[in-house]
Amino acid sequence: MRIACVARRIQPRRNPIGPVSTQFAVWFHGPTLSTCRPSAAGATRFLSSGRTALVGGGAGSEGGVDKETTLDPTQVAQDLCKLPQSELAGYVQDSKFSVRMWTSIITSVGGLDWQRGRDILLLSTHGRQRRHGVPSGSWPRFNVMHYNALITAAGKDRATAARRTLDIFQDIEQARLEPTYVTYILYIAAVTKTGSWPDTEKALALWSAWRSKGQREGPGKPAGAHRAGAQEVRERRRPELYNAVLTACGRYGKFHKAKDIWAEMQQLGVPCDRVAYHALLRAATTARESRDVTHQLLQAVRDSGLMPDALLYDGMLQACVPLKDHQMALKIWGEMANDNLTTKASTFAAVALLRSCCTQQDLERVEELLARRTTARISDEFVSRLALRAEWAGLGDNTQLPRGWQELEEAKKLGLADVRVYNTLISLCGKANAMDQALKAFDELNRQEGVNATEASYRALLAACQRGAHLEYALSVFESMERAGFRAPLSAYNDVMAACAKSRDCALAVQVFEGLEAAGLKPDLVSYNILMSAYLRGAEGADSYDAVQQMLENPWQLLQQLQSNGLAPDATTYGTLLAVCARAGTWEKALELDAEIQRVFDKANLGRDLERSLCNAVIDAVWEHKPDAGLEVFRRAVATCYDSVFSVRAEAAEILWVLDLRRLSGGAAQAALMCWIQDTLSATMLPDHAPHKVVIITGWGKMRHEWQSSFVNEKVSELLRAMDAPLLDSDVLGRVELDVTKLQKWRPHALLCTQSHAWRLRA
After folding, report:
1. Which of 27, 182, 280, 418 maximizes the CB count within 10 A of its CB?
2. What is the pLDDT of residues 194-214, one digit of tens each?
3. How far apart are CA 536 and CA 554, in angstroms?
4. What per-residue confidence (pLDDT) applies to 530?
5. Cβ atoms of 210 and 236 closer than 8 Å
């Protein structure tokens, strides 16, 4: 095996890589890696093998300037990865590659074998530290650019990116080098992709410590030895660096942190470009910020004078979804059309507009989106159109399924039915809860000539299995995935566990959890949340009191385990634990969790929807045993997430009192009704200021969440009957009306019931 030949004549000068001679030629032979002068036959064999070498300038060369060509770094990297560890030191010590060549080689080696790339850099570091004992040769003087290349390679594997990039930072310190702003950009970007906020927070903490110091003092290096002055200040204030930090905050919905970074940029004079505004909009959207905050951001974008590009338009469109501002979304889409950017819009932007159109029942606009190509990032229009249909199916319209098959047939006629089209069709079937259709699409994919199922195909099919709680199919698909040679990712294990949980097979869910640990995977927060849910559902089917208590005790042990592994509970974790409290009747623990939620979560970052879900879960957990505490929780959250429950409307010259309880749980709906009786009904002058109608909207179960124990309609009707409320007969599902003519007579009795809790005895 012959690796890399470099031979050239250079003038004596200072070389940043290491000492060089005026004339050298290095040739590596076989596994011994001996150094000798290349022969003409050897050079011919090397060139004929397809590699490019730089040969010449030896003793036999007369005059002239040597011709320099470029080696293939990928081939060199492959050969390096095949070398035994014992021979690696000799190669690194005797090679004469340039700085740029070593950068390309380290990048390629890191993609093939990350640990081998790290070993190469460590060899040079250790070699320079003991350079007086080295008998011959010189070690390459790797700089921080080579470590940056390794960070780029390490960030490609999301499962290990956080640990590997942190190890590289420690190696940089050991090599007595200082990370540059590029190092932090690559580090933050790599960790952000992992989906772990704790790891990303560590990266931001390292960046914060670095930028706060005028000089960074490394181990063994005297203070003031690092670069300082205006250039260093400029590097610490690079817009690209701040954009990476803002992107990380946007990824996890940390709007308040992003806002602080934005304020710091304005204070330091760091320009805020389109990427920064897109990250701010994403942070506000993910955090479910209020309408005023999002509108202020949108106005700030327009006041900045920047010409929005496709990325910034994406962020603006997605910000309109939680605002339910359909007119604003259409206006932004029209501006994109005027700038000829609609074809460059991502699927996310088109889906954002699609959501807005579906919410407003703008079916004509939906058809327009589905009939045209909406993205340039996906090479063919069929993937995009199927993705939009899948999103529409996820919103509850299952009529898109047959039309999805029509898209597939049209793609096949044009020869564009690649694996991505099939994968998207499988996702469409999964969101439409049509497992048989998903299996049919997967089978047709396997039968299609020239098209092979990928790991994404199996993941899409597993997602369809867990969505419909098809446990047997999920196990079969998981086994087929491994037989096909794909290593099951963590998401595949989570999907199988979710199918077990929905099928109330707690024992099998535990086995899958143990299996992912045995496979060398580290469970994430989603894994723990699913297993907690499996225990909760398993308690519903337990056949004895002791079994139920054991099932309900296991989630608390999982909470301690995930915290010991460095994970922080999220809203789903607390919601599941509160459901456990409701099932076990431990209302004291529920109040302790409520206090912890108030302490841990910032309401502004939590968002209205999540805060309402957690308040619903707290009230459900305490309502049967401590209703006064439930009323206190409801009143505390009225101003933040329950503000739209009661409203006064005017319809056709009639005044309506409306209680909209559709987004509440059973216990929270009863608490809202009692608060309305105590606060609104008792303070109204009847009959002078009586409304024409009192309408209580409960819904009919379509918006019911998994953690809700019963439909809101059942709970509200149960409470009203227990209070002898004057109900009117109604044929409208999900709607209860009170007889206004009997409201004054019923009010004293209703107030007495709420104060004495007599309704509990009758219910």
Report:
1. 280
2. 877 888 888 888 888 888 775
3. 9
4. 94
5. yes
**Region 362-383 average pLDDT:** 55
Query: CA–CA separation, 695 vs 703, rounded Å?
Result: 19
249: left (phi over 0), alpha (psi -120 to 50) or beta: alpha
Entry pTM: 0.59
The residue behind tokens 């096949």 is: 412
Q: What is the pLDDT of residue 355?
A: 65
Residue 491 near residue 457, CB atoms below 8 Å: no
275, containing H or E segment: helix 274-286
- Separation of alpha carbons 513 and 1, rounded Å: 45
Is pLDDT of 615 > 50?
yes
Residue 38 in tokens = 């290349």
d(CA 117, CA 723): 74
Instruction: Give the single-character DSSP code of 39.
Output: P
Q: How far apart are CA 320 and CA 194, in angstroms?
A: 27
Instruction: Give the 3-state secondary structure of residue 166.
Output: helix
Q: For residues 207 and 188, is the Cβ–Cβ distance under 8 A?
A: yes
Q: What's 681's DSSP letter? A: I
Exposed, middle or buried by CB within 10 Å (0-12, 13-18, 19+), for 665?
Answer: buried
- Amino acid (one-letter) located at 741: T
Backbone angles phi, psi at 243, to 5 degrees: -65, -40
Q: What is the pLDDT of residue 370?
A: 58
Q: At what angle do helices 291-303 and 274-286 cross, to 10 degrees?
A: 170
Angle in degrees, CA 471, 474, 480, rounded to 5: 145
Containing 277, the helix (H) or strand (E) segment is helix 274-286
Asked if 713 contacts 699 with a C-beta cutoff of 8 angstroms, the reply is yes
- CA nearest to 56, candidates 66, 47, 65, 64: 66
Q: Is 333 helix (H, G, I), strand (E, B) or coil?
A: helix
- Amino acid 446 reads N
Residue 34: pLDDT band by 50, 70, 90 thresholds?
very low
Neighbours of 659 (CB within 10 A): 21
How buried is residue 663: exposed, middle or buried, by Cβ count under 10 Å (0-12/13-18/19+)?
buried
Single out the residue of 42, 36, 34 nearest to residue 24, CA to CA.
36
DSSP secondary structure letter of residue 54? B
What are the DSSP E strand ranges found in 139-269?
none
Omega before residue 687 within 30° of 0, cis: yes
At a CB cut-off of 8 Å and minimum separation 6, what does 667 contact?
Answer: 616, 619, 620, 621, 622, 623, 624, 630, 715
pLDDT at residue 489 greater than cutoff 80: yes
pLDDT tens profile 546-588? 788 888 899 999 999 998 988 888 888 999 999 999 888 888 9
Report the largest interatomic distance among the alpha carbons of the chain, rounded to a whole angstrom. 116
Mean pLDDT of 61-78: 55
